[in-house]
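Self-study notes.
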Amino acid sequence: MHLIRFLTYQCFRLAVVVLGVAMLNFLLIHSAPGDPAMVLAGESGAADPKFLEQLRRDFGLDQPLYMQLLHYLGNIARFDLGYSYRQNLPVLALIADRLPATLFLTVPAFLISLGLGIYWGRHAAGRRGWRLGAFTAVTAVFNAAPVFWMALILVMVFSYWHGWFPAFGIRTPGATQSLAGQAADIARHAVLPIVTMSLFYLAVYARLMRSSMIEAMDLDFVRTARAKGASRQRIVRRHVAPNAILPVVAMAGMQAGQLIGGSVVIETVFAWPGIGRLAFDSLLQRDYPVLMGILLVSSVVVIVINVLTDLVVGYLDPRIEIVT
């Protein structure tokens, strides 16, 4: 009963948030400088006033702003995200075409950074001396280094110097390969982007896991288990780690939805044809419908992941009651 009420509340909240995000995205993007009709006219080599007027009329840009907003919200209610000025394709089709490439980067990067971060932070909690110093230094570098700088360093070392992995793109141009060969080629191209995206979040989860482990070591039930003569490994495995992992899972849930937004830099540096690259190109081209569609889809993903995170945390710790 609590779960049904929780999911009903979350669906209502999702609808309200989508409405608010759609209105905010529309107003912010349309307040930005630049005229998409001028961009389209410039690309076609014609800037005649009649041609500009025809373009604005064809795409509904000649209507008042509030009419454009109402039309946009009505389309969203019908699951229609609009039509791309530049690509001459439905926005939903463009996003659906680019989303798998982004997920191919973000999902492995998230799982790798979360798994290695928990493992590394757990073992670093009991380290002292030079091992603790090395942990602190490495995680500080990963956490502070700009993503684009880290990407360029990896490209220089592993692509330019050693030639182990391709530097840019999603596949080798003009290569004729079997299905297995194409999959292996895409995987080789994805290694450097995935590693780059993983390093920052790996440092965040490792530092948080270590802090949570140290804090859990001082809890009363851990002292009781230690007084009963339980071994350190059993205390860590049965009592400390299950409690220390909860803040890490909660943090990971909040950051998982940000991976799509954070992929803009990664996909631009590595020329990866995903959602982030599409958003960057749409911004330069003043392709408002595509940009608004990407922002809206990203917002929905963030909300859904937050709901799943609440369910996972409630499952890991039954003491946490799901409430609306």
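Second protein, same conventions, sequence then structure:
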Amino acid sequence: MNKEIITVSFSGGRTSAYMCWWLKNNMSWLYDFKFMYANTGQEHPKTLEFINKVDKYLKLDLVWLEAVVYHGKRKSSGHTIVSYETADRTGKVFEEVIKKYGLPRLGTMHCTRELKINTMKSWKKSIGLGSARSAIGIRYDEFNRVSNDKQIIYPLATIAKITKQDVIEFWKNQPFDLEISEEQGNCWWCYKKSEKKLALIAKQNPEAFNWISGMIVKYPEDAGPGIFRNHKTVKDILSLANKNGLSEIEDCAEECGTIIPKEV
């Protein structure tokens, strides 16, 4: 009997990596898996290192993808196959999306759509898996994020019932881990992150906002109000990080397992 092929979306985080391990070790008798990662060019460097280590450690045969944007056409993004070595780390692929669709913000999340979803759809279609189901790394304690889309499965939430603590304990017992704290994951400066998390990132790594600041200057006609939550700007985020009263940021750091260096 031919096994159903499931495509697996590896985001680059601990939970997503755990999902890859769990599927290979618990469901390979029933399904064949195709593991994929869509790069945006704005991930923390340690995220890419972690993805590469996980790929080799679990023998995922991971397919690294990046968007191909079709300017001047009513056509969603295609894909190109890259590697850990050749994956964009400068944001050039992200800027191509901005050129066509404008700066992203809540309500117009075309970065997720074009850099992630449509890129992976394009690759799936190119290998004859356009109708294949995809696995996403949502945990049991994130069940409110589970959708009714029949083409998406959530093995950690609906079958394994894995929580955040389970994931943390798992990585404590592996020979390596993601060497950044939770708030630094995915796109480093992502506008979907809370103000607390963004301020914490700005406190630790203000350079994380250099690229998006440059894009806002380069494409001012599309900047409008701030692109972050509550129309906050980069300046607002940096100001919050530099305020004397940092109790809220410190609370977030405790939640995320991050230590803020004490002022000298």
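Instructor comment on the second fold: Residues 4-172 form a domain with the Rossmann fold fold (CATH 3.40.50.620).
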